[in-house]
Amino acid sequence: MSSLAQRFGIECPLVQAPMAGATTPELVAAVSQAGGLGSLGAGYAEPQAILDQAARIRALTDRPFALNLFVLPDDFVPDMAAVARARECLDALMEREGLAVRTSLPARWAPRFSEQFAALCEARPAVASFAFDLLTPVQVQELQRRDIYVVGTATTAAEARAWADRGADAVCVQGAEAGGHRGGFLHADEAPLIGLFALIPQAVAAAAACGREVPVIAAGGIMDGAGMLAAEVLGAAASQLGTAFLACPESSAAEAWKRDLLAAEDRRVATIRSFSGRAARGLRNRYVEAMEGMVDRLPAYPVLNALTAPLRRAAAAAGRADLVSEWCGQAAARVRPQPAAELVARLMHEYRLARRTLAH
Ligand SMILES: Cc1cc2nc3c(=O)[nH]c(=O)nc-3n(C[C@H](O)[C@H](O)[C@H](O)COP(=O)(O)O)c2cc1C
């Protein structure tokens, strides 16, 4: 068992990725109960919902779990001319597609991070992971004082070093293959797409340069136990799998999304900015193609995300999966729909088998 697995109190170096909009307390609890580390993506959740969902996980399991947030400023002052342009374009698209829904200005563009952070501290999960930016040194200390293990997301070696220097206990490196939003923060275009094989060894070296042992968790395109072992051979202490868990019955991904994963051709899985204003990996569909010419003129995250959220909900309700964000990693078609506990057992079995095979 790796030292990280020991520290997490898990049996196998397997982390189920936080996936805001898809992870549920039921999924997280099932994974943790089965011996992995379940993570709840709480980036879109208001503080009370974070507390409620953490309580629900605790009602289902007494095993350790992780909560995950997006590190963002508390307030946003968008360019309202860009907002108006985006609304016009989105409303015209909905009209062309025969959907009655139209954009509106939300009361707030996103939950306030400082309030989410306070709720997370109160919920006191064993592990807290973060994407989109660094925490402040004070915030890192605040978590560690509560005995919460801090994991920061990095998409480059420089970001891994930045999190290590900031005092993170571990760094989750997100390879280009990964589904969902790019978690990086240092590089202007948000999307340096370093493949996981190139990233792990460089991130391990960069994190170690801070003078402490900072384990690296590998994320991106890992769908089975052999992939987990490959990441470990390259220097990772654990693997974080997202897409692999999306089609579990406990995931709240829509049925159409789950079905589309199975048919996802690797070449159709792209980095997309037009749903949320931030680069994220998912399936290219009719919406993505329709918005292609507009991408550079759209507002940034979370403004565009808030504008498109009601449209995506209405499109999903109307059975128009071709207008909905279906995030997934490059290996989506290898997803194996089954209850989360069974998937964890299968991954662990494959991982151990691969270890034995490699040893011979
Ligand atoms: C639907 C979806 C939502 C995601 N949401 C989050 C999130 O809320 N926070 C986060 O740190 N990472 C998020 N990720 C990224 C994962 O942490 C991880 O990097 C990714 O799932 C790994 O690649 P894979 O999907 O190929 O396994 C998300 C990924 C997916 C597929």
From TrEMBL:
InterPro entries with a match to the protein in the record: Aldolase_TIM (IPR013785), NMO (IPR004136)
Domain of life: Bacteria
Keyword entries, A-Z: Detoxification, Flavoprotein, FMN, Monooxygenase, Oxidoreductase
CDD domains: NPD_like
Required co-factors: FMN
Reaction it catalyzes: 3 propionate 3-nitronate + 3 O2 + H2O = 3 3-oxopropanoate + 2 nitrate + nitrite + H2O2 + 3 H(+)
Entry keyword Flavoprotein: yes
Keyword check for Oxidoreductase: yes
A GO MF term: oxidoreductase activity
UniProt cross-references to Pfam families, sorted A to Z: NMO
Family listed: Belongs to the nitronate monooxygenase family. NMO class I subfamily.
Annotated protein name in UniProt: Propionate 3-nitronate monooxygenase
Taxonomic lineage from the root: Bacteria, Pseudomonadati, Pseudomonadota, Gammaproteobacteria, Lysobacterales
